Amino acid sequence: MPCMETLGLSGPPQPRDSLFRRLFWPSDNAGDADILGQQGFWVCLIVGMLSCLIAIFQGHWIAGIFVLVVFTLGGIGVREHDVLAAISVTLLSATQIFAAIVVLHRPPGILDLFIILLLLANIRGCRIAAKWSRLAPETIPERMNETWRDKLVDQMPARVWPKAKYAYYILFFIDLLLSLAGIGAMLHHPHP
Questions:
Q1: pTM recorded for the entire structure
Q2: What angle (nearest 5°) sits at the alpha carbon of residue 22, between those of residues 113 and 112?
Q3: What is the pLDDT of residues 78-112, one digit of tens each?
Q4: Residue in 66, 74, 22 with CA at minimum distance from that of residue 45
Q5: Residue closest to 78 by CA, chosen among 127, 111, 116, 29
């Protein structure tokens, strides 16, 4: 029996980490939090691109580009584990869903809910990563610099965020105010 214990064959089976758990509720370690930061960058970039395309097809190309810039910068902030950036992009996405519900009377779709859940998980991931970078910076995985993906996701955010974070918060505030003003205007003056 001691041999069985040494090999880890006795006792209760260890639960396996699932993709769902990694995406929506990562463990409290630096590696998972860093992966969640990469995921958050891609989610923000994709949400910004989709929002931009929708706005362009509706004839609002300036608004589309503005939203793309805001979500891209927010994704860069999420990649750099900025908790406030993670909260702000989640708030912007929730505002878009709220506008669809209240103004267009369209319930949120599966994709909307999936995106909100991923963005909420990013808030937790940013908090975990910020804690690890404060307490034990050596535990944060080294960022890669070999492929174009590495340069985009690992290197570019580290260079851009320190210079762009204040501009991002100003753009976020403008976007939020414009979104809320647009919702208010459409509620007071509905289209026939």
A1: 0.79
A2: 10
A3: 988 899 999 999 999 999 899 888 887 888 889 88
A4: 74
A5: 127
